[in-house]
Amino acid sequence: ICESELLGQGRSGSGEWNLVLDAGRSVCRGIDVVRNKIKMFAQQKVTLPKGRHKIIILDEADSMTDGAQQALRRIMEIYSRTTRFALACNASDKIIEPIQSRCAMLRYSKLTDGQILARLQEVVEKEHLAVSDDGLEAVIFTAQGDMRQALNNLQSTNSGFGYINSENVFKVCDEPHPLLVKGMLGHCVDSNIDEAYKVVEQLWALGYSPEDIIGNIFRVCKTYQMAEYLKLEFIKEIGFTHMRVAEGVNSLLQMAGLLGRLCSKTAPPAAS
């Protein structure tokens, strides 16, 4: 791998100077921009100390057309001695192989809950927000590792209610409350399908879509305290149901079927 170029991949949410060209997503998509703006910048002769190079930064490079990427590949080859390229993308599979092979790949995973919590606490302190501990936990839950989403949810809840607690956060984000989902999973662990179905029926009556419900069931199940083998069985069944819901089979009956299968995992064997 040639380390003179970088290709950074990560979730969405991460001026032109003499030595640095920052080509944002709004301007770098087409081949004309590559042939004109980027190529002209790479051609500029600038006196720099030994070992220093011009830098071209392309944000969301995966939105570029194939033609633009092919043109960029050629520019990277020609001006590799004087210019370094940094590409950021959400999906590296949308970057053509010749560019990938010329770059050192840096992959960024989702932020941890601890990292998001530290930043939220800093914002809360500086902005003097009224917030509860369960409110911050709710913001982190809804963010799913996305700092931008976490800050948006924090701001929206504060603007709407003036106080950030779990109830207000889930009202703003319009997601099924994880405590309800947790209770439903508890009923499934106890093989109490009647009580589990009442919870799903309640969420359905509140207008939540099957995608919202099944998504939160999965996220709550990952952290639910149960035997490891049982958790794996639950996640497998939830995954199968999620696949069917994504294919369009998204009725209440589908959710009831999931509860039946989950309860069957913990039900005692029938007497012979």
* Overall average pLDDT: 85
* Sequence of strands across the biggest β-sheet: 2-3-4-1-5
Instruction: Indicate the CATH architecture of the largest domain.
Output: 3-Layer(aba) Sandwich
* CATH class value of the largest domain: Alpha Beta
Can you count the beta strands?
5
CATH superfamily (homologous) name of the largest domain: P-loop containing nucleotide triphosphate hydrolases
User: What is the succession of H and E elements?
Assistant: EEHEHEHEHHHHHHHHH
Low-pLDDT sequence parts: 13-17
* Class of secondary structure makeup: alpha/beta
Q: Which value, in Å, is the CA radius of gyration? A: 25 Å
Treating each run of at least 4 consecutive H or I residues as one helix, how many helices? 12
Number of domains: 3
Gross geometry: elongated
CATH topology of the largest domain: Rossmann fold
Largest sheet, in brief, is: 5 strands, parallel
Write up this protein:
The protein is of the alpha/beta class and 272 residues long. The protein has three domains: 5-107, P-loop containing nucleotide triphosphate hydrolases (Rossmann fold); 113-173, Orthogonal Bundle (Helicase, Ruva Protein, domain 3); 178-266, Zinc Finger, Delta Prime, domain 3 (Up-down Bundle), CATH 1.20.272. It contains twelve helices and five strands. It has helices at residues 31-43, 66-78, 97-100, 113-127, 133-143, 147-161, 166-173, 178-189, 193-205, 210-223, 228-246, 252-266; strands at 5-9, 20-23, 54-58, 83-89, 104-107. β3 (54-58), α2 (66-78) and β4 form a beta-alpha-beta unit. The model is unreliable at 13-17 (pLDDT under 50).
